[in-house]
Amino acid sequence: METNETIQGKLVCSAKGFFGFVVPDSDDDIFIAGENLASALNGDTVLARVLPGSDTSRHREGYVVKVLERGNKTIVGVIYKEKEGVLLLRPDNRQIYNKIKIRPDDAMNAKIGMRAAAEITQYHPDGGIFGRVTAVLGSEDSLKGCVEGIIIENKIKTKFNEETLAEADKIPETVRPDDLSGRTDLRSQLIFTIDGDDARDFDDAVSLDVLDNGSYILGVHIADVTHYVKSSSPLDSEAFERGTSVYLADRVIPMLPIKLSNGICSLNPNTDRLTLSVFIEISSTGEVLGHRLEESVICSRERMTYNNVNAILERGDETLCKRYAHLLPTLRGMERLAALLHEKRVKRGAVDFDFPEAEIVVDKNGEPVEILKGRRGVSNRMIEEFMLLANETVAEYAYWSELPFVYRVHEPPSLEKIQAFGDFIKSFGLTLKGKIDEDNPIRSKELQKILEQVSGRPEERLVASTMLRSMMKAEYRPHNLGHFGLAAKYYCHFTSPIRRYPDLAIHRILKEFINGRLKDGQFASFAAEAAQNSTEREAAAEHTERDTDDLMKTAYMAKFLGSSFDAVIANITGFGMFVELENTVQGLIRLENMTDDYYEFDENSRCLYGRRRGKTYKIGDPVRVTLIKADILLRQIDFVLEEHFSPKMIKRAKKPAKKIIKRAKVKRAKSRKGKRHGTI
Length: 680
Description:
Layout: E1 7-13, E2 19-23, E3 30-33, E4 45-50, E5 61-69, E6 74-83, E7 86-91, E8 100-102, E9 114-123, E10 129-139, H1 143-153, H2 162-170, E11 184-185, E12 193-195, E13 204-210, E14 216-223, H3 234-242, E15 246-248, E16 251-253, H4 258-264, E17 272-282, E18 288-299, E19 303-305, H5 306-315, H6 318-323, H7 328-348, E20 358-362, E21 368-373, H8 378-400, E22 407-409, H9 415-425, H10 444-454, H11 460-470, E23 475-477, H12 501-514, H13 524-557, E24 564-573, E25 576-581, E26 586-590, E27 599-602, E28 607-610, E29 616-618, E30 622-631, E31 636-641, H14 647-653, H15 657-660, H16 672-676
Helix pairs in contact: 1-13, 7-8, 9-11, 12-13
């Protein structure tokens, strides 16, 4: 008997097939076959009904009965043909199966072969979707147009409102005497910044004093953005809307106007700046003994870079040591303190993922010209430790002071995911110790031990990345739930108010509190709204950054079709091998292109075994590969083993994008099930 109960959730469609899942707020996902999607699109909020007989502990299947809220206002894609007097736009997002119909009057100057952004204007009862072109982004193979499309798809705002810019223009460019009232004057102290070579907005500066008893006084000085960005002002409203700055290979899309982010709020050297400082006393054994939080004014003595500090501390570069002789004792003290703090974090069970990041170098036209493998040196880790400690200290202070707050929380992984991870690592001879069930949840220390055991082994990156995918995603919440990955009872984001709204929000709350102005009930709803919106905007920014990086990597590699590279096997599946180049670029060697034997996938040992010749490929093996495909539209890179390469492979792989992308056609269901399960 079919139930009349309907379940609300967000529809998430597959990019690799014609199906999706309805994800409720607090229940298991519901599988939706393509013929049961009705008129719903990826991202819509829908009502779904579970099919009879499918409601089991591990699998529920259903159908969409109603779309409650549309999740796509604008869709980016390529105008690929004209049919029945209208243009058809094929979405770049492969999770959206429908083509968008563009009437001639709504096409602007878009032509076949162009990429465009179209605002949805009508969902027709027969399933057709109509749109109006709002921006023409260039030809379909334009890299700049692809980047603009990614930005639009993720609802990233690039231009500031006129009202916001007008308010920013009124803000003075220098600190005024009346700004100093009630502040601690730290301008005579040795305070400096350490950032990347290309950084322009400096959120944080540091200082260090060593006491006679061996204790440290660490000062973390954060830009006092809220002095200029007042509550409910145009600047504040737009910063809330954006939620975060977005860092792309060819640009930065800031949360605040440049006049603030690179100007009066940035802790530029030899310039007075307003700050919120936290001083933390740490014993010689790494215990936090106390702290104080106060409004302050600083004058940074130096703008140090990670590269320079690494050269000083790691290699003792004579020229730099001489140039920064006045900083040497402090830098070496900071190095010792950071090592002490790291040791304490490791002992309590913090999980340290050390994935090398790609540094994509672009020319003046935004085209990628080089991809470098990023490196975390001693100075990078040093600043990271100091910011982590400041974030923890402030979060604990807020918790025990019972403040309305925005915490950064990371919940433990689900039992199902951690059991699946435990099964996965068995093929590498690794096991999670102890009994893990509802009454005995996994501890972060057990995962840390796995990373330690696999360190330096060929499968290290695969195990670490699989572990990361098994974890929950960190979020912002108005209530403290701790941070599983950091093994921290209290955590927040306090150190980057120029580029993250949660940091700005808690600065506003903290300043009211330390000045005795915080009223009962004040900021409670603000903290909750800031937490939810910041989580959503962070996700959009991450998608934008990741998709743009993938695009840039593909565009860069497209210059090297037919070239060979040294690589390492990063993962092996039933359909081929993923390999990684030294510059972090990854691509797939498809099984059908391994032509010297018939290879079978051994899931237990995670290797490919040649049935006739007995040749084996396993994770971590070095291989020589040749590039045969770099599809910019799909952001897809294909290699073959060098010994299997034939120039014909490039020709076969170089099909027009419209032939490669075989989207499932969305039709009204003709089956009895489909007719019965129409929309209501």
